[in-house]
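Progress report, Aim 2. The chain analyzed during this reporting quarter is listed below.
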Amino acid sequence: MFQELNFPKFEYRFKSTENKVSIFDVIRKKFIILQPEEWVRQHCVHFLINDKNYPKSLINVEKELTINGLKKRYDIVIFNPDGSIFLIVECKSHSIKIDQTTFDQIARYNLVLNATYLMVTNGLNHYYCKMDMEQERYSFLKEIPAYKSL
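Predicted structure tokens for the chain:
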């Protein structure tokens, strides 16, 4: 039905209403209309929970933030237990090539959110970065760290 993605498989729940298919979001605890970007977001959420062991309680999905007076929405944020932000994830549809524009977008979000790690994915390609706030730069990583309880 949807594009096979470069994420581990997970048990998803669909429902169909008024000719629209929805997928259940375990974070928002409701069905969300299934668009290509949502398909990637749901795979990523399950990857973070099932493979990287992040507690659902520390994950936020699709919340609004204001950047330079403009309202934007981030895809996924993982908080540290102290409320600071550990990771921001920007999800794109599998058909969108990840380029400098995508990195610029997540970098703008991070000016407000101050996350330690950034992840950009279109479901096929994943990029991970660790921020160095003092040097105002980031370095690419092979993978994102797994959750370690404090």
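The chain has a mean pLDDT of 92. The two ends are 40 Å apart (CA to CA). These observations will guide the mutagenesis work planned for the next reporting period.
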